[in-house]
UniProtKB/TrEMBL annotation:
It comes from Pycnonotus jocosus. Residues 542-679 are annotated as: Disordered. This is Signal recognition particle subunit SRP72. The lineage of its organism: Eukaryota, Metazoa, Chordata, Craniata, Vertebrata. Residues 541-597 form the Signal recognition particle SRP72 subunit RNA-binding domain. GO terms for cellular component: endoplasmic reticulum; signal recognition particle, endoplasmic reticulum targeting.
Length: 679
């Protein structure tokens, strides 16, 4: 029986060897299991089973086999396989312990050690490990090791802001070009990085097009990460529309890299900000995909969580915003953004006092970050209209008190509140700080030392401010200090003399002797060139020289020239020079003294009144005999009365109206004119 079992085992081993060479690890695993049925503690069979499971992607099962046979599979025998399974299962800390506990550090373990250090973001140790591997290894994987080394340098430049050293790597592959571009982005050299990415794209197309089995879709999928980095550069350069278009093109390709999709979705959310929140809510789902946390760095994951909290605030999800920001604060207690997001949410809820209290508590607990927090507190106070309290908060930031920007802001705010004494005190404190700083740097030596440009600028601004607000005596001391630093400064001397002239005229006369004479102040200016310059508003006409015949001709033309006649104003057709014009003719009719208004109540002849066909005229009015004997009420056309009336009419602009009849006639004409159309 033992001989038969040994023969069967030999046949199974031959099957395992043949399947392993052919890459058929599933079939090899079946043969290995049969061998283990014969001898369950066969170390070689157990090792083969672990390798077959790893090749088939069953890392969890492989690790289970290792852990259940610890007596047989010791760390010396199976250290690499165990560490690799832990690495692939994202148990990075466990993988590191397994590698470090191995008695012998093989080349395989060193390669895995470098990968583990990179995932743990221990970039300095990782860089040293890859350098040692490249130095002591010579095989077909040298190009991959150089690619990994360049990735470490890019990560240092991006996340740790370390200036990368020149590794002397020949950028012959698109991976090396891509990593070099990432390192340039970390340094802020965006234009150079874009050129590197364009070169990487060309190399990628050339490399993949050589393989006939690779389709255009496969090439575009491989280029997605390069295009994503290009879009990121565009976004940093402010070309948000171009970046957004490229981001959306990558998403349409549906790449399998969940890390790439999460980064692109996050960047789109940052472009949208508080606009297009519906699109942002769809994109944020891509950042929650399974496995994203194992593909991105800690800072990338943190940035995504920050943006989720901000999106919750923009979409008025107050509880969700508070929950996310509180979680972020517990993970990174010293980080500014979580507390700032919480304060912003409180301000949206009109709880400004509570927001200021929250910021004050954070500043007390984390003095290192107090400056930025206090600047935010001051901004909130200004928004509430408490300018004086905002000034008090700003003055409590000791490390910024002497900065010109802070001094300018405080002086402006105090001036707005008309607190001139406090504004001058701000100037004084800043000037004293520079004096003490200069004393410290000079180590107490008594030799005269010139003041720094910032110090002198503060003194000058203080003097100008004091002069503007009538503090002449205080301004004089500042101006004297400035003149002492530079006795040749004529501008400062002139200011000093002007100030003394209001306080001590005798002193002003004495100082005026130091002014340069007028001869030394003569300016060498080419007047003609200045007048002919592009910005000149007045150009003096050059006088032309007249000689001989030209002069006589000019004089002759002057005699011929006639003065232009002024055009006479047009007069009305019925203008009568004998009649004095109405002095109120330029006023509107309603504003004239003789205007009586329209007379109401009088009706014209009752024409068209009543029902159709009826008449309101009495029978006596239709009597022809009575009409003939009665005097006419209006002139008839063509009669003498009509002619005389027409000849004596004076227009209303020249004379007052003759009386009511003329006005009535005018009204009748207007009504007659407006009665066209009928019913």
């Amino acid at each position: 029986k033992m001989a038969a079992a040994a023969g069967a085992a030999a046949g199974l081993w031959s099957e395992v060897n043949r399947c392993g060479q052919n890459g058929d690890f599933a079939r090899a695993l079946k043969s290995v299991n049969k061998i283990l049925q014969i001898n369950k503690d066969d170390v070689t069979a157990l090792q083969c089973k672990v390798v077959c499971l790893i090749q088939n992607g069953n890392f969890k099962e492989a690790l289970g086999v290792i852990n259940t046979h610890t007596k047989v599979l010791t760390s010396d025998v199976i250290a690499f396989e165990k560490a690799y399974c832990e690495y692939r299962l994202n148990r990075i800390e466990s993988a590191l312990k397994t590698i470090q506990s191995a008695s012998q550090q093989t080349d395989k373990l060193k390669e895995l050690y470098g990968q583990v250090l990179y995932r743990l973001e221990r970039y300095d140790d990782c860089l040293a490990a890859y350098r040692d591997l490249i130095r002591n290894s010579q095989d077909e994987y040298e190009e991959e090791r150089k690619t990994n080394l360049s990735a470490v340098v890019a990560a240092q430049s991006t996340w740790e802001k370390v200036v990368p050293e020149d590794l002397g790597l020949r950028e012959a592959t698109y991976e090396l070009c891509y990593n070099s571009a990432c390192a340039l982005i970390g340094q802020g050299k965006l234009n150079e990085a874009m050129k590197k990415l364009q070169k990487a794209e060309e190399l990628c197309r050339q490399s993949l097009s050589e393989d006939s089995d690779v389709t255009e879709e496969d090439i575009e999928a491989e280029l997605a990460i390069i295009h994503g980095q290009m879009a990121y550069i565009m976004q940093l350069q402010g070309r948000t529309e171009d970046a957004l278009q490229l981001y959306n093109q990558i998403i349409k390709l549906k790449p399998t890299d969940v890390g790439l999709l999460a980064v692109i979705a996050n960047n789109i959310i940052t472009i949208n900000k508080d606009q297009n929140v519906f699109d942002s809510k769809k994109k944020v789902k891509l950042t929650n995909a399974e496995g994203v946390e194992h593909k991105l760095s800690k800072k990338q994951l943190q940035a995504i969580e920050f943006n989720k909290a901000l999106l919750a605030m923009y979409t008025n999800q107050a509880d969700q915003c508070r929950k996310l920001s509180a979680s972020l604060q517990s993970q990174s207690p010293e980080h500014l953004l979580p507390v700032l997001i919480q304060a912003a949410q409180l301000c949206r809820e009109k709880q400004h006092a509570k927001a200021v209290g929250l910021l004050q508590d954070f500043a007390d607990q984390h003095p290192a970050n107090a400056a930025e927090i206090k600047l935010t507190m001051a901004q909130l106070k200004i928004a509430q209209g408490s300018v004086t309290k905002a000034c008090m908060i700003l003055r409590s930031i000791e490390e910024l008190q002497h900065k010109p920007g802070m001094v300018s802001a405080l002086v402006t705010m105090y001036s707005h509140e008309e607190d001139i004494d406090s504004a001058i005190e701000v100037f004084t404190q800043a000037i004293q700080w520079y004096q003490q700083y200069q004393a410290r740097t000079n180590h107490g030596c008594c030799v005269f030392q010139p003041k720094s440009p910032v110090h002198l600028s503060l003194i000058r601004e203080a003097a100008n401010f004091k002069l503007k607000h009538g503090r002449k005596k205080e301004a004089i001391s500042d101006l004297e200090e400035l003149w002492k630093q530079n006795p040749k400064d004529v501008h400062t001397l002139a200011q000093l003399i002007s100030a003394y002239s209001l306080v001590d005229p005798e002193k002003a006369k004495v100082l005026s002797k130091h002014l340069p004479s007028s001869d030394t102040l003569s300016l060498k200016v080419d007047v003609d060139a200045l007048e002919n310059s592009h910005g000149a508003t007045y150009v003096r006409k050059k006088a032309a020289k007249l000689t001989g015949d030209n002069q006589q001709k000019e004089q002759g033309q002057g005699e011929v020239k006639k003065k232009k006649k002024k055009k006479k104003g047009k007069l009305p057709k019925n203008y009568d020079p004998k009649v004095t014009p109405d002095p109120e003719r330029w006023l509107p009719m309603r504003e004239r003294s003789y205007y009586r208004g329209r007379k109401k109540g009088k009706k014209k002849d009752q024409v068209g009144k009543g029902t159709q066909g009826s008449t309101t005229t009495g029978s006596s009015e239709l009597d022809a005999s009575r009409t003939a004997s009665s005097p006419p009420t209006s002139p008839r056309p063509g009669s003498g009365a009509a002619v005389s009336a027409t000849s004596n009419v004076i227009p209303p602009r020249h004379q007052k109206p003759a009386g009511a009849p003329a006005t009535k006639k005018k009204q009748q004409q207007k009504k007659k004119k407006g009665s066209k159309g009928g019913w």
